[in-house]
């Protein structure tokens, strides 16, 4: 069975949001064209408490984009985003949320970030996504969403490690590109790990 896995298609990652991904809104029509081609659709949401320690606002003297050691893990500091129950945490308005069969919430532990839809960044806690997919009999996942070089990448890599056939819908993703070349490097890393890069028209 095939699943479409939508990663963090939330207002704060769209133009005008607090952590806007360039052209992030352009993936939504592509997702809309794909969504009815899949047996099941599951989506992740960043779901941060207001005091999340990945936020630069929680660290005096630090700026957005700085990298710190956060409880033993390297952590890029981000603007406050996807705070629980805020407008920024909601799915994009023109995303067909009614077609989503299940939502996975991640990043709710204030002490550790969660880029992957499967685990937090120290891999101590699973989100429940793997168990849900297994229960549905899913063997192949098609990944789309935001952002290519962070949450999409880590979700796809974990899916490979967990034994799924993994496809990245390249025209249904956009990246942050915090450093020039980050998106290109992420695509190469995913492909080298066994992720198949496809276009939505190939599905």
TrEMBL record:
EC number(s) from the headed UniProt entry: 3.5.1.19
InterPro entries, sorted: Isochorismatase-like_dom, Isochorismatase-like_sf, Isochorismatase_Nicotinamidase
UniProt keyword terms in alphabetical order: Hydrolase, Metal-binding, Pyridine nucleotide biosynthesis
Organism taxonomic ancestry: Bacteria, Pseudomonadati, Planctomycetota, Planctomycetia, Pirellulales
GO molecular function, one term: nicotinamidase activity
Sequence intervals crossing the membrane: none
Domain Isochorismatase-like: 3-200
GO term, biological process aspect, one: pyridine nucleotide biosynthetic process
Gene3D superfamilies (alphabetical): Isochorismatase-like
Name of the protein described by the UniProt record: Nicotinamidase
Keyword match Cell inner membrane: no
Pathway in which the depicted protein is active: Cofactor biosynthesis; nicotinate biosynthesis; nicotinate from nicotinamide: step 1/1
Pfam family name, one: Isochorismatase
Keyword flag ATP-binding: no
Similarity field: Belongs to the isochorismatase family.
């Amino acid at each position: 069975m095939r699943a479409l896995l939508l990663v963090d298609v939330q207002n704060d990652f769209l133009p005008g949001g607090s952590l806007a991904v360039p052209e992030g809104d352009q993936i939504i029509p592509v997702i809309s064209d794909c969504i009815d081609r899949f047996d099941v659709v599951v989506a992740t949401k960043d779901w941060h408490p207001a005091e999340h320690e990945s936020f630069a606002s929680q660290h005096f003297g630090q700026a957005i984009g700085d990298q710190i050691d956060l409880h033993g893990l390297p952590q890029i500091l981000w603007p406050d985003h996807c705070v629980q129950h805020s407008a920024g945490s909601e799915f994009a308005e023109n995303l067909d949320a009614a077609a989503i069969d299940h939502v996975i919430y991640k990043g709710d532990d204030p002490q550790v970030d969660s880029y992957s839809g499967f685990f937090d960044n120290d891999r101590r806690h699973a989100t429940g996504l793997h168990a849900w997919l297994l229960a549905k009999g899913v063997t192949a996942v098609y990944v789309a969403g935001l952002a290519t070089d962070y949450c999409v990448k880590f979700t796809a890599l974990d899916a490979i490690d967990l034994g799924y056939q993994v496809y990245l819908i390249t025209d249904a993703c956009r990246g942050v590109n915090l450093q020039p070349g980050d998106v290109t490097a992420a695509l190469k890393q995913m492909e080298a790990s066994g992720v198949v890069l496809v276009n939505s028209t190939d599905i």
